[in-house]
Amino acid sequence: MLPENYVITIGRSFGSGGRALGKLIADKLGIGFYDKKLLVKAAEKAGYNLEYLEKNDERAPQIMGGVIPFSMGFYPMSWLGDNGCASDGIYKAQCDFIHELAGTEPCVIVGRSADYILRDVPNVVNIFVHAPKADCARRIVERMESTTEAQAMALAERTNKLRANFYNFYTDKRWGRADSYDLCLDSSLLPLDELADFVIDYVRRRLDK
Fold first, then answer.
1. What's the pLDDT score for residue 38?
2. In a domain, 1, yes or no
């Protein structure tokens, strides 16, 4: 029997189907699913315009036009300037809401370094979803986010770099590395529906009371 409150966090490479997998898992378990909804709550809490928040979603603060390329772990960084302070406010608002969720309902959270934010919270299972570049490119084209596989690969590379910079900046772990997560899955090896069942079985075995 699963605990009253638990969280499944999903990190994902772009085009791997991690978000779709998370939605499947949430639907099968009948629990909440949070991805873009986190942005809405963060906008409300921090007083930011939602459009601005979406533009800066999962992006590390910038200094002089360049993203800081090293891990620092999160703490108030007043020396970053206006863009850094705004980024800190956005991140803190998401941290607060993620902690609030973990204490009130079982859910699946995609991205936003939720695994690190909840590192001291019980009943959290952290997953990373990846796939070969060609499979990611095909999925991106199927989602009509690019017209060719070459364009899709370039988009995936840019997006993954942004996600890695964000994750590595705000945590003391490395994005996509196996030792940063409980379970890493190659989504090209099984249909997403079967992967969802596999993850659910793993979660039940891990958290069964």
1. 73
2. no
